[in-house]
Amino acid sequence: MSTIQTIGVDLAKNVFSIHGVDAYGKCVLRKTVKRNKLLDTFANLPPCIIGMEACSGAHHWSRELKKLGHTPKIMASKFVIPYRQSEKNDPNDAEAICEAVSRPKTRFVSVKSEEQQAVLCLHRIRHSLVKNRTATINQLRGLLSEFGIIIPQGRYPLQKMVPDILEDAENGIPFLARELLSDLVNNIRHLNEEILRYDRKVYRLSKEMKQAAKLMAVPGVGEHSATAIVATVSDGKQFGTSRQFAAWIGLVPRQYSTGGHVHLGRISKRGEKHIRTLLIHGARAVIARCKEKTDRTSLWLQQLVERRGYKRAAVALAAKNARIIWALLTTENEYQANYISG
């Protein structure tokens, strides 16, 4: 039997398809194993490259396979789809993964540690709470409009005005509706408390994570942005350049060029949506205060806002910060406000 060089694994909950090839690309292993037998199967194989799609459990299996001496590699599903032959099923997916992991231009996801995934769990849970609060606020505003009561936009005006509205016996809201709307108000208050509790956890983590504390020196990068970036990309060395890092976040222009003519459009919005959102929100906060400052970045922003508008300036600053963040992660340098490269 030829020595196995590369293996593709189609991950699932209980049943996994495996496809292995030798140095010449010939299939020498094709089987299906159950979850409790997966590690035993790989423990009996020589060290090899193992490809997997980025999905739930991919980082866990990668850590376990590393312990067995293998080299696991995680990739996005978009890199696998072009290599799938015939119909979509688990064995064909495993074969496509095996082919994709061996291609030189395939980009891989760095394997995260348990600690990194724990920090990302915190961010995801908090994000879901914020979405639930926004949905509840919108529902409350919509239900009040059914009774002819219009609330100004924003959660602070709503939270301030609704208690007085519910206590007003002359506004025509039936008693049952008052009870139900009061329940929604209590839900919003509970969500506020939960979000604040998670915010405090993020603040504590930002003090404990050395890299995160360094990133927070960049204007527009706060505790949430810094901890999310460090937990997601660690030292950032999987990206060859700062532009690759910005492109992964989705902050570079979408390109459609042909015949020597370069056409650049809006930002691509690919990759990591959560980090992109945090960086743009941070950039907005910087722009709001830039008129009061005279450093190089603030002067540049003032001119950019005047020339290109507020929203484009916010995205430009977010992209600039992404490149600075990559430089800080991949080197021992500290942030300098008026730094000029030599």
From TrEMBL:
Domain Transposase IS116/IS110/IS902 C-terminal span(s) in chain numbering: 213-294
Segments forming domain Transposase IS110-like N-terminal: 7-147
GO molecular function: DNA binding; transposase activity
An individual GO BP term: DNA transposition
One Pfam family of this chain: Transposase_20
Name of the molecule in the record: IS110 family transposase
Organism of this sequence: Vibrio amylolyticus
